[in-house]
Amino acid sequence: MGRILVLTEKPSVGRDIAKVLNCNQNGNGYISGSKYIVTWALGHLVTLADPEVYSDRYKVWRLEDLPMLPDKMELVVIKETAKQFKVVKELLRREDIDELVIATDAGREGELVARWIIKKAGFRKPIKRLWISSQTDKSIRDGFNNLKPSREYDNLYRSAQCRAEADWLVGLNITRALTCKYNAQLSAGRVQTPTLAMIVERENEINRFVPKDYWTIEAKVNGFYLRWQDKTSGQTRIFDRSKADAIAAKLANKMATVVDIKKEAKKEPPPLAYDLTELQRDANRRFGYSAKQTLSIMQRLYEVHKIVTYPRTDSRYITDDIVPTLTDRLKSIAVGPYAEHVRNIMRNKIVVTKRLADNSKVTDHHAIIPTEQYVNLNALNHDERNIFDLVSKRFIAVLSPSFEYEQTTIRADVQGETLYAKGKIVKSKGWKFIYGGNIGDDDNEEDDDKDQSLPDIKKNESLKILSVKTINGKTKPPARYTEATLLSAMENPGKFVANKTLKEALENSTGLGTPATRADIIEKLFSSFYIEKRGKEIFPTSKGIQLIGLVPQDLKSPELTAKWELQLSHISKGKANPDVFIKDMKNYATKLVRDCIASSAAYTHDNMTRERCPECGKYLLDVKGKKGKMLICSDRECGFRKSVSQISNARCPECHKKMEIRGEDEKKTFYCVCGYRERVSDFTERKKNEVNKKEVSRILSSQNKSESINSALADALAKLKM
Question: Are 16 and 118 part of one and the same domain?
Fold first, then answer.
């Protein structure tokens, strides 16, 4: 009897699976056992061929050679990982291999990784699929006991292949067309361009915005405040100063009669569990993490620590088969700050509603929740703790009761003018107890109707107005995007479209990109210098603004791109023809090239310096990337780049802000906004000589616990000046 080959996506996952399958003989790029051999990719080992592979004429970028539309897309082995591909290929061709198990990431991209390797290697034997949402030993064992025929995932592979080919056809053709037409390093794509267009349009809205003065009126009575409200429109803002003053004068020193008191018992249900996009939003809001950074941290929690489920999910629900495991998952996180909350839930029967378990709302993967693996918080670094804290608290919150409160609204009349006040009495903190009783959303505009503590007041009661105040304010433009709000916009682009027909189309789509790709799209916009970050806010650069003016109109449309993503989703479910989709992409790529060539628009480098490129002599461009400033050659064919400054993780010893590194080689210097400067070499040497306070404390603590304490060492440590 032959053996079974298992193909994983990464070496770390391969080692985990090998351990469960009792494979303990290390080979070159694989681990073998009596029944199984486990090998791995290194991400993608195979990719779509570059244009030059199809024809020598594509080695030089020329408008007359566009569009590039290969009859059949070719696959090539990636040079950097060719060695591992050779290992996998030789294993696939071994005589003693009877069967292959695909154990790459359970998603569209993971399926593509495996299928392209299989296709390039020419493997023809039976194939099965491992599909799991966590990397615990139990999940792996259960998964191997429930392997599926690979044909069940053929449509998922077709969808992934269509996505890759569409990106090639649209992205490479329009990128070459723009670059050749305007002699500048310009690129575009079916997802990145509409995303950039939203950022540029938001900036245009801000620049067009003209602020208007408005006034609100606040009347103080005994113990609380009443706010004026227009009895017809319900508005509290007055845009006429004289009208505001007249109303204020009318209210002064009068008696207000309470005409209505409304008390409502209200419940706020727990939030839904996390999908990747929602987690990335929260991580950006609370910790300033980029979408890519959050995904990277989640991958470590999933693959290395094995304490969270599969991160690249777009579902916020679990399936019914997960419900019996909830108790074990709660027990696994019953440590540190979560222990009390877990005990509170475990005292009662866990109530699972459709807000948590709903099979109809789960496709490939369920929501992100903890695994049954015991959690050692001390094994996590700072960033991992932060993200795991979000996941754990959200999981506990989902299983907690509603937040309950009583909303009281008082309405009063003063000579025909309406005044009101709102108050809230908390009856049960419910799930908000996990967050200290409150959880806010920094993306929401400030609410004028703040709840206040209201005294016991009865209807028809008279209240003396002690003072009246008119408060001046100004209308504000829409806020610039942060990574958090940009992710929201990419997920729900219909919110940002006024046209009702387009909005409906977008609501039925998957948005711009997928949870797995959105982080990379944002990073690409930064690395291409189309956008830059100032604090948390995202600004389009001049290059990005100009690009949006150059690309064809329909490529900027989120509606078109969202429709494409919807088609890819239909292909993955066997509801759409992949050949038709690719034919449409070829036609569209042709149209894009034609429109670009016909354009009369111009591109101007407005960030050109007077410094010459050391390699070709042309002027360098001053660009600001996500991590600092760079000088790049204005000639796209040259490609020279030089770092001018970059943001470091080193903290200023005076103000503790992150410092910037400028200069080269031995002249590298830390600069801080507070004025502090220090050579990098001096900083490094100083850090080497500094006493690590935590380490000293740890040594002292451990020695104090020991009966055989070395008092001489302890005394020496104690005398160190910290």
Answer: yes
Together in a domain, 260 and 408: yes
Structural domain of 626 = 609-689
DSSP H or E segment with residue 609: strand 608-612
Q: Which residues are part of the catalytic machinery? A: 310
Q: Three-state secondary structure along 238-251?
A: ECCHHHHHHHHHHH
Look up the CATH number of the domain holding residue 83.
Answer: 3.40.50.140
CA distance 405 to 438: 13
User: Do 383 and 407 lie in a common domain?
Assistant: no
How many alpha carbons fall within 13 Å on the CB side of residue 549? 14
How would you classify the pairing of strands 36-40 and 30-32?
antiparallel
**Do 374 and 468 lie in a common domain?**
no
Residue 604: inside a domain: no
Are 8 and 38 within 8 A, CB to CB? yes
- Supply the DSSP symbol for 706: -
Lowest mean pLDDT among 339-348, 436-445, 541-550, 634-643: 436-445
Q: How many domains does the chain divide into?
A: 6
Give residue 300's identity as a one-letter amino acid code. Answer: R
Assess contact for 142 and 318: CB atoms under 8 A.
Answer: no
Q: Is residue 699 part of a domain?
A: yes
Domain end marker among 418, 447, 474 = 474
Q: List all residues 6 or more positions away from 121 whose beta carbon is below 8 Å from its beta carbon.
A: 85, 88, 89, 92, 93
How far apart CA 104 and CA 107 sit, in angstroms, is 8
Tell me which residue of 89, 48, 95, 91 sits closest to 72, measured CA to CA. Answer: 48
| Rounded CA separation 169/69 (Å) | 7
Q: Which two tokens stand for residue 271?
A: 């939030």
Q: Which of 200, 194, 208 is nearest to 553 (CA)?
A: 194
Q: For residues 321 and 358, is the Cβ–Cβ distance under 8 A? A: no
Q: Which two tokens stand for residue 686?
A: 């100083």
With a CB cutoff of 8 Å and minimum separation 6, the contacts of 107 are 310, 312, 364, 365, 516
Q: How far apart are CA 294 and CA 111, in angstroms?
A: 23
* Model confidence, pTM: 0.77
State the helix-helix crossing angle for 108-121 and 154-167, rounded to 10 degrees: 90
Give, in degrees to the nearest 5, the angle at Cα 387 between 383 and 389.
115
With respect to residue 603, please indicate whether it lies within any of the assigned structural domains.
no
Q: Which domain-ending residue is among 567, 598, 629?
A: 598
Q: Are residues 656 and 554 in the same domain?
A: no
Length of the chain: 722
pLDDT digits (tens, 9 = 90+) for 79-95: 999 999 999 999 999 99
HSE-CB at 527 with a 13 A cutoff on CA atoms is 9
Provide the angle, in degrees to the nearest 10, between the axes of the packed helices 542-550 and 192-208: 110
Note the pLDDT tens digit of each residue in 101-132: 999 988 888 999 999 999 999 999 999 999 99
pLDDT of residue 628 exceeding 80: no
In a domain, residue 156? The reply is no
Contact in structure between 371 and 307 (CB atoms under 8 Å): yes
Q: Quote the Cα angle for 1-153-562, to 5°.
A: 160
Same domain, 91 and 107: yes
Same domain, 28 and 108: yes
Helices 291-303/382-398 angle, 10° precision: 80
One-letter amino acid at 684 equals T
> Distance (Å, rounded) from C-alpha 164 to C-alpha 177?
20
Task: Report the distance separating Cα 367 and Cα 388, nearest Å.
Answer: 14
Pick from 566, 468, 522: nearest CA to 159? 566
* Whether residue 11 sits in one domain with residue 139: yes
Q: Where are the alpha helices (DSSP H) in 7-103?
A: 11-20, 51-54, 82-92
**Distances 694 to 656, 691, 698, 701 between C-alpha atoms, Å:** 18, 9, 6, 10
> Using alpha carbons only, what angle is made at residue 135 by residues 133 and 140, rounded to the nearest 5 degrees?
90
